[in-house]
Design a protein that fits this description.
With 64 residues, this protein is mainly α. It is built from 3 helices and no strands. The longest helix is centred in the last third of the chain and has 25 residues.
Length: 64
């Protein structure tokens, strides 16, 4: 749970730097759930996080 929380925290910060607010929010949700050791619930948020991550990745690729 601690490793998940750390990874989500890092992604939350990075996505905030890019202005990816929906990705940041999903990361925050996972971080909070992992800190509470509610990994099953965090797993339910993962598909949303993956969708938002892909949108950000696609937008960055379009800027190249």
């Amino acid at each position: 749970a601690k490793a998940v929380a750390r990874a989500a925290h890092s992604l939350k910060g990075s996505s905030g730097n890019f202005g990816a607010m929906r990705l940041q929010a999903a990361s925050k949700d996972i971080e909070q759930l992992a800190n509470q050791e509610r990994l099953g619930e965090a797993a339910n948020v993962l598909p949303h996080l993956e969708t938002e991550y892909q949108k950000v990745a696609d937008a960055l690729k379009a800027l190249r």
